[in-house]
Design brief:
It is a single chain. By secondary structure, this protein is of the alpha+beta class. It has 3 domains: 189 residues, Sandwich (Immunoglobulin-like); 94 residues, 2-Layer Sandwich (Zincin-like), CATH 3.30.2010; 127 residues, Neutral Protease Domain 2 (Neutral Protease, domain 2, Orthogonal Bundle), CATH 1.10.390. The chain contains 9 helices and 22 strands. The chain has a 7-stranded mixed beta sheet, with no helix packed on it. A hairpin with a 2-residue loop joins β19 and β20. α3 packs across α4, α4 crosses α6 and α6 runs antiparallel to α9. The protein is globular and about 60 Å long. The protein starts with 36 loop residues before the first strand and ends in an 8-residue tail after the last helix.
Length: 452
C-alpha cells in the first residue's frame, strides 16, 4: 500500500441529502459510527444495582449537525429504550435494531445547528460479543469493569462510537454504598443517601467513546504521587502491599515520558487493580486497569505499567481516526516499554529492538502492519513491528531531531486525531526528501521484514 493512499476518515455519503449515514466508513468496523453530526458532550446519569446487574439511565447528548438532518442514528446495543427526545420534542419515529438507534424527525435540523438528544433506557447491561471477544460492560465477581476497545461503548450508552468523534463527558453513577466507583476525569462530587452513593466525574478533555469507562468494586484508594499530576490507585484491601511496591516507580515513568513526549495531557491519572484476574491490562482515558494477576509485589509488571501510561499520550490524547492505523497507538506504547527498560537499568534501546526483531523474524511474514485487517488489529506483530518502525525513524533522524519532532508532533495533535499519512508528513519535515516515507513504507506497509 502506498503511503499516499492513507488519508483521514471521511463520512460515507448518505443515500439522501438529509439522512445521516449509519456508518462512518471505517472499513474495519463498517457498522460502527454514524454520519451527519458530531458529538460535543455526553452527560450520562446512571443508576445501577450491583447485586442484580440492573441499570436505569438517561443519556443527554449534545451534538452539532454536519448536514441537514431529517434522520440520524446512534450506536446502541441490547438495553431497552424507554423514551427519546430531540430538542425537547418526541421524534416522528424511532427504531432500535442491529445495534443502531435510528431517529426520524418531524422538523429537520439544519447544517451547523447544535441539537440535544435525550435517551432514557434500562436493562441488564452485558458485553458486546464479536471477533475481539467480549467488549464493554462486564460483571466481575463482585463489581463491574468496562473496557470497550474498539466498539463496546454501545453496551452501556448510546453514542457515535468511533474514535474520530471525540467529546467531553460527565458521568454520574449511583450504586450501593459499599462499592467504590471510578470513571474518567475528575471526581467532582460524591453523595451518600439511604445506603447508596452517587459518584460524579467530569472529563474536560475530549475523549473517544471506546475510552469511556466505569469501574466498580470493593476498593480502597491510596495516592501514589503528585507530580506532574495526582496519581491514585484503587484496589482490594488485600492487595495493599503489592500495589504499593509495584507502582512505586510510576513517578519515574512520568518523568521520563514527559521529558520524551511533552507534558502529560490530562489532569490526573488513576490505576485500578481488580480482585479478578484479567487476560491483559486495559487502557482508558486518564486511567488504566490491571488484574490481580498483573501485580506481584516484585515489579514483575513494570513493562505493562509503562505501556499503559504511554497510551495516555498515544491513543488517548493523540487518537487514530480509523482503526487500520492502530500501529500508531501500540507501536509507540511498545516503544515506551523499551525506553523505560533502558532508563531503569535494563537493556539499551538497541538491544531491545534487536531482541524483538529476532522474535518477529521467526514468525510468518504475512501481515501488513499498516493495514492488517480487522482480525489482526491486536496481533502482537502490530505492537512490536510498530515499535521497530518508530525506532527506525529515530535512528534515521538521530536522538536530538527525533525527540524534538516527537514532542512537536504530540503538541500539534494534542486531544486530536492522527493518521499514518499525518505521521509521515510531519516527521518528513525533519529529514531529507523521501527518507521517512521510504522507511515507513518498508516497516509498516510491506509484509516482508526489512533489515534492522
Amino acid at each position: 500500500m502506498a503511503i499516499a493512499a492513507v488519508e483521514y476518515l471521511t463520512t460515507v455519503p448518505s443515500r439522501s441529502s438529509s439522512y445521516g449515514s449509519a456508518s462512518l466508513g471505517d472499513e474495519y468496523l463498517p457498522a460502527t459510527g454514524n454520519g451527519g453530526y458530531t458529538v460535543e458532550h455526553y452527560d450520562l446519569d446512571l443508576d445501577y444495582r450491583v447485586a442484580t446487574n440492573r441499570l436505569s439511565a438517561t443519556a443527554v447528548i449534545t451534538a452539532r449537525a454536519t448536514m441537514r438532518l431529517e434522520r440520524f442514528s446512534l450506536d446502541f446495543a441490547s438495553l431497552s429504550v424507554e423514551k427519546v427526545t430531540v430538542n425537547g420534542a418526541r421524534p416522528r419515529k424511532t427504531t432500535h435494531a442491529s445495534r443502531k438507534l435510528t431517529v426520524m424527525l418531524d422538523t429537520a435540523i439544519e447544517n451547523g445547528d447544535e441539537f440535544e438528544i435525550v435517551v432514557r433506557y434500562r436493562g441488564a447491561p452485558r458485553p458486546i460479543r464479536g471477533r475481539w471477544g467480549d467488549l464493554g460492560w462486564e460483571e466481575l465477581t463482585d463489581g463491574v469493569l468496562v473496557a470497550s476497545q474498539p466498539n463496546g461503548a454501545a453496551s452501556w450508552f448510546p453514542s457515535n462510537d468511533h474514535p474520530s468523534d471525540k467529546a467531553t463527558y460527565r458521568i454520574s453513577l449511583a450504586c450501593e454504598s459499599p462499592y467504590l466507583v471510578v470513571a474518567n476525569g475528575g471526581l467532582v462530587s460524591r453523595t451518600a443517601r439511604s445506603g447508596r452513593t452517587t459518584w460524579v466525574y467530569e472529563s474536560a478533555e475530549p475523549m473517544a467513546s471506546y475510552l469511556a469507562t466505569i469501574q466498580i468494586g470493593r476498593y480502597v484508594s491510596t495516592q501514589l504521587g503528585t507530580e506532574p499530576v495526582v496519581q491514585t490507585a484503587y484496589f482490594p484491601p488485600s492487595l495493599a502491599r503489592v500495589v504499593k511496591v509495584d507502582f512505586e516507580r510510576l513517578g519515574d515513568m512520568f518523568a521520563l515520558f514527559c521529558d520524551r513526549f511533552g507534558p502529560y495531557p490530562f489532569s490526573s491519572y488513576s490505576v485500578v487493580v481488580t480482585a479478578d484476574e484479567l487476560e491483559i491490562p486495559l487502557e482508558a482515558q486518564g486511567l488504566a486497569v490491571f488484574g490481580r494477576n498483573h501485580i506481584d509485589g516484585a515489579h514483575g509488571s513494570d513493562r505493562l505499567i509503562a505501556h499503559e501510561l504511554a497510551h495516555q499520550w498515544f491513543g488517548n490524547s493523540l487518537t487514530i481516526t480509523r482503526w487500520r492505523d492502530i500501529w500508531l497507538h501500540e507501536g509507540f506504547a511498545c516503544y515506551s516499554e523499551w525506553l523505560w527498560a533502558q532508563e531503569s537499568g535494563g537493556p539499551a534501546i538497541g538491544t531491545s529492538a534487536a531482541e524483538h526483531y529476532r522474535m518477529i523474524d521467526a514468525l510468518p511474514q504475512d501481515i501488513v502492519v499498516g493495514d492488517p485487517g480487522p482480525g489482526a488489529m491486536f496481533d502482537d506483530r502490530i505492537y512490536k513491528r510498530g515499535a521497530l518502525a518508530v525506532h527506525a525513524v529515530r535512528v534515521q533522524l538521530g536522538d536530538r531531531r527525533f525527540f524534538e519532532a516527537l514532542r512537536a508532533f504530540v503538541a500539534a495533535h494534542r486531544h486530536a486525531g492522527i493518521s499514518a499519512a499525518g505521521f509521515v508528513s510531519f516527521f518528513a519535515g525533519y529529514a531529507d526528501d523521501g527518507v521517512i516515507e521510504q522507511l515507513v513504507d518498508r516497516w509498516v506497509f510491506s509484509a516482508a521484514l526489512p533489515p534492522l
